[in-house]
Amino acid sequence: MPAAVLIGAQWGDEGKGKATDLLGSRLDYVVKFNGGNNAGHTVVIGDEKYALHLLPSGILTPGVTPVIGNGVVVDVEVLFEELEGLEARGVDVSKLRISANAHLITQYHRTLDKVTERFLGKRQIGTTGRGIGPAYADKINRVGIRMQDLFDENILRQKVEGALDQKNHLLVKIYNRRAISVDEIVDEMLAYVDRLRPMVTDTALLLHQALERNETVLFEGGQATMLDVDHGTYPFVTSSNATSGGAITGSGIAPNKIDRVIAVIKAYTTRVGAGPFPTELFDEWGDFLTEQGHEFGTTTGRKRRTGWYDAPIARYSARINGVTDFVLTKLDVLTGIERIPVAVAYDVDGQRFDEVPVSQSDFHHAKPIYEEFPGWTEDISGAREFSDLPANAQSYVRELEAMSGSRISAIGVGPGRDEIVTLHDLLG
Ligand code: GDP
Ligand code: IMO
Ligand code: MG
């Protein structure tokens, strides 16, 4: 089973990092295909906790070749900070390969991200401020700088000039900031060239050849389905395709090569940043989920918004991504709740919707229609087999499975690497 895509089914932070790490020893390649250092993946190995942003989580597994695909936007300063941080902790990062077609995030993207958010005022997205949106905007506008441009100083200078031309007018005249000089950017970039040279390659070819040799490749998504620029809650989304389709365009591997689509989904829901969230809780249950689930952002430290499980979103994700297997995470967080509400459909101005409404206004008005399921009080963190779970936890999982559009193949019962119940082999 050589190629699998792993994505988030909700609004991010479902535990994708842990799920990737779990499969680590069976993988030859882990490919990040979208986003950049807006992602924050926590992996807990024994007493060690790692927070990965730009690097694929597979980098923590010896033997795995981590790949940054063409669909990613790379902030080289952050890249080397993260690599050095891992090296200092004894992680071998020498195998990392980066697509020559990946776009760069520079100082002007970070600046523009922050100033545009400020100008949006009440309409702001609540971005991570890492320059993600402006870097993708340049890519689409055909004024982006790619990894391969770094290796020809003349080309690099021309491209930076082209990109800064318009931006400096914007920065100075509209946003009241200082102009950025071409030299400043070019010098910053050139400082990394020698170290980047051995890493940058044709990763699409590399991965194609790996699949031809029947090696196992996991495509690890950043962000999640509801943050996807096409299929998420636009405009409250990130600027890339976080759904399974993004794995294709973001890596250069064809759709008929993909054997499995694994979606990671929490046993409840969280969201960071602005935008609609039908099951959001504003009462003590919201605080309960935040505290029990330690729901604070891995990247920005922001408190995550929390709410109950939303089955229409799970079904939507199953459909948009072609999910073959769900990994249900954080079931342990629900321990101690007497009756657990689950949204089974929405009420939109008196009309029932069983699916996520296509109209943004309808989704903003969607009120969850809840069903309640009996909870459990036993500590479940030691469960390794489905039968180890209390009867009510088992039926909660089965109920979610029945309404979510695909089978649940693994269940997270704690943050640790081994805190997992496996029902079906995710790569078998
Ligand atoms: P990602 O962005 O999808 O990789 O997820 P994050 O790492 O941002 O957030 C998930 C958080 O939940 C991390 O702190 C994980 O250590 C933690 N986590 C993952 N799975 C479980 C689980 O099954 N139970 C509990 N209690 N924590 C989990
Ligand atoms: P992982 O991979 C949760 C959210 C931001 C904001 C919106 C746009 O850890 O699941 P951006 O900086 O991408 O332009 O911000 O997307 N966002 C995330 N929320 N988890 C993430 O990544 C996110 N990456 C971006 O909060 O609302
Ligand atoms: Mg995260």
The portion of residues assigned to helices is 25-40%
CATH level 1 name of the largest domain: Alpha Beta
What small molecules are bound in this structure? guanosine-5'-diphosphate, 6-O-phosphoryl inosine monophosphate, magnesium ion
**How many distinct domains?**
3
Catalogue the unreliable spans.
none
Structural class: alpha/beta
Specify the CATH homologous superfamily of the largest domain: Adenylosuccinate Synthetase, subunit A, domain 1
Task: Label the overall shape.
Answer: globular
Number of helical elements: 13
The strand order across the widest sheet is: 9-7-5-2-10-1-11-15-19-20
Quote the CATH topology of the largest domain.
Answer: Adenylosuccinate Synthetase, Chain A, domain 1
CATH architecture of the largest domain: 3-Layer(aba) Sandwich
The major β-sheet equals:
10 strands, mixed
Using only CA atoms, what is the Rg? 22 Å
DSSP strand tally: 20
Residue-averaged pLDDT: 96
Fraction of residues in β-strands: 15-25%
Query: Termini distance?
Result: 6 Å
Pathway: Purine metabolism; AMP biosynthesis via de novo pathway; AMP from IMP: step 1/2
GO biological process, one term: 'de novo' AMP biosynthetic process
Pfam family, one: Adenylsucc_synt
Function: Plays an important role in the de novo pathway of purine nucleotide biosynthesis. Catalyzes the first committed step in the biosynthesis of AMP from IMP.
